[in-house]
Amino acid sequence: MNKIALHAVTLLGLAFFSLPVAHSADNFTLEPSHTSVIFGVSHLGFSYTYGRFNEVAGSYALDKENPAASQFQFSINASSIDTNDAKRDEHLRGPDFFNVKQFPAITFQSTEVATQQNEAGETVYEVTGDLTIHGVTRKVILPLRLLKEGQGMQGDTRTGFLCEKHIMRTEFGMTNMVPAIGDEVAVTISFEGVKQ
């Protein structure tokens, strides 16, 4: 090997070993039986009506060494809305509210992830992403508080998160019966993901 070729190989080797090491993320899938999406909204100022969505799917990738490389994606079957009143639920599925025939899914796809510690010393994933409801997409930040990571009862590895968020339904084109039915909706999301 001549000196020029040897020099080129040496430079190539140095370049390779000076590249940043890629951190592999851990992939998780939501466990439906331990995933809840609950909401509450004011009813004429007298009380709050609470409901939930019974069909939620999603997955996420956690990179602890490089949180910015983490990703989250969730999908909710809008027709699975359940407020413990069949007549009201059918109204909510209709064109006055979610219009599930035209917009069957509520989705969230992360675009940016950062972490911080809260006052209790817990890790909070500040997840920026696109939330689509009623066919309208808005940029939101979901504060996902890491509750626990470890081994589940079946010997699997899992993580658990809690998110509390307020959204304005009129920002997603759901303007019917405001202000009698509140504009601000309090949403609580709790989920466990099982490592794949």
UniProtKB/TrEMBL annotation:
It comes from the Bacteria. The keyword Phosphoprotein does not apply. InterPro entries: Lipid/polyisoprenoid-bd_YceI, TTHA0802/YceI-like_sf. Keywords: Signal. Residues 1-24 form the signal peptide. Residues 27-194 form the Lipid/polyisoprenoid-binding YceI-like domain. This is Lipid/polyisoprenoid-binding YceI-like domain-containing protein.
